[in-house]
């Protein structure tokens, strides 16, 4: 492995390593705010010092002259700070959107927080605790939740941080740019061993990552575990794939819109599938009103729910829905 200099093992470092595609934009924002702060701190202190000398009281009986305002001055000191504040907002928002909008086709990894550890599952079947192995130069999307309290997944070298929330999936993505080992922290106080809820992110060359994936730690794939539970929990007795069962078929459902009894439509994403397993009555599929699917709350762990979702995903042919604007172009190409 081409091990490079990383933050691991260093006593003190003001700025963490830059090891993801976000690092540059986030740091640029940070330095920009720093520069503005330093500029105005020096400017204001200097002005206070200068004016306090220049306009000091020179005689005991001296009286100040009243000033009756200046429109130009007031406009200037309102407009300039407004432009500066808006520039911080625009640059910050641009960086925020790029960090919270995962590209389609990113590699999927699943994270479950727990007092006090990070449990990671790779779709290929590898599971790890407090360690995350990823390939360099490839977008990775994390789908995260927690089985107890709020935690926060934080990798300073990637400049990413996001809360993991009970009962909810949050997502985060990154593309590592440098091989090495980086700190993984929990950044939300979560109990008396919060400070020990730390780990390592191992960024590896693609070939090394493949070798690691097919290593001895590999178990059954998430999809296979999901299918096993699907049968064990009896889901397969109602959700028949030919749509003749008591529940709707789950074939080609994931990522597609689902018509509900309430007249609304939802997209069958991770959150919807999770809710349908744990609170089946929350969103009832159209024409399935009379079926009372039992809840699986308490019978399946968060890891298990993610495996079931992985299985449901595998029942859909297209891995990711095609973006709307691309569809007409593809149709035109097909006609030629
Ligand atoms: Cu988990 Cu702090």
Short description:
This protein has helices at residues 23-54, 71-100, 206-213, 222-232, 235-238, 270-278, 302-314, 326-335, and strands at residues 107-114, 117-121, 127-129, 131-135, 139-146, 151-155, 160-164, 170-175, 180-186, 199-204, 257-259, 265-267.
What does this structure look like?
By secondary structure, the chain is of the alpha+beta class. Helix content is about 35%, strand content about 20%. It contains eight helices and twelve strands. The chain is elongated, with a radius of gyration of 27 Å. Residues about 1-5 and about 320-335 have low confidence and may be disordered. Dinuclear copper ion binds near residues 113, 186, 190 and 197.
- Count of separate DSSP helical elements: 8
Name the hetero compounds present.
Answer: dinuclear copper ion
SS class? alpha+beta
The CATH topology label of the largest domain is: Immunoglobulin-like
Overall 3D form: elongated
Reading the helices and strands in chain order gives: HHEEEEEEEEEEHHHEEHHH
Low-confidence segments: 1-5, 320-336
Report the strand count.
Answer: 12
What's the Cα radius of gyration?
27 Å
Distance between the termini: 48 Å
Give the overall average pLDDT.
83
Strand order of the largest sheet: 3-2-1-5-8
Characterize the largest beta sheet: strand count, sense, and whether it forms a barrel. 5 strands, mixed
What percent of residues adopt helix (DSSP H or I)? Answer: 25-40%
Report the portion of residues in β strands.
Answer: 15-25%
């Amino acid at each position: 492995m081409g091990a490079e200099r990383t933050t691991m093992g260093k006593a003190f470092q003001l700025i963490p390593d830059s090891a993801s595609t976000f690092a540059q934009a986030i740091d640029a924002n940070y330095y920009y705010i720093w520069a503005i702060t330093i500029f105005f701190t020096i400017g204001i202190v200097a002005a206070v010092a200068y004016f306090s000398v220049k306009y000091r009281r020179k005689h005991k009986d001296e009286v100040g002259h009243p000033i009756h305002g200046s429109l130009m001055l007031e406009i200037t000191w309102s407009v300039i700070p407004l432009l500066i504040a808006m520039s911080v907002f625009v640059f910050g928002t641009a960086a925020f959107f790029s960090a919270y909008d995962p590209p389609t086709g990113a590699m999927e990894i699943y994270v479950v927080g727990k007092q006090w550890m990070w449990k990671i599952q790779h779709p290929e079947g590898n599971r790890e605790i407090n360690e995350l192995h990823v390939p360099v130069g490839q977008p990775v999307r994390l789908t995260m939740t927690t089985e107890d309290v709020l935690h926060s997944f934080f990798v300073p070298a990637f400049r990413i941080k996001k809360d993991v929330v009970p009962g909810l999936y949050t997502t985060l993505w990154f593309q590592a740019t440098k091989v090495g080992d980086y700190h993984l922290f929990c950044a939300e106080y979560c109990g008396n061993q919060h400070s020990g809820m730390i780990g390592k992110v191992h960024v590896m060359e693609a070939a090394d990552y493949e070798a690691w994936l097919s290593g001895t730690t590999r178990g059954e794939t998430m999809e296979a575990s999901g299918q096993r539970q699907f049968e064990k929990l009896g889901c397969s007795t109602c959700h028949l794939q030919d749509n003749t069962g008591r529940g709707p078929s789950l074939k080609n459902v994931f990522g597609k819109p689902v018509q509900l009894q309430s007249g609304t439509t939802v997209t069958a994403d991770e959150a919807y599938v999770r809710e349908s397993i744990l609170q089946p009555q929350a969103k009832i599929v159209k024409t399935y009103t009379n079926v009372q699917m039992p809840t699986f709350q308490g019978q399946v762990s968060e890891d298990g729910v993610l495996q079931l979702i992985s299985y449901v995903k595998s029942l859909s042919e297209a891995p990711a829905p095609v973006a709307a604007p691309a569809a007409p172009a593809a149709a035109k190409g097909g006609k030629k």
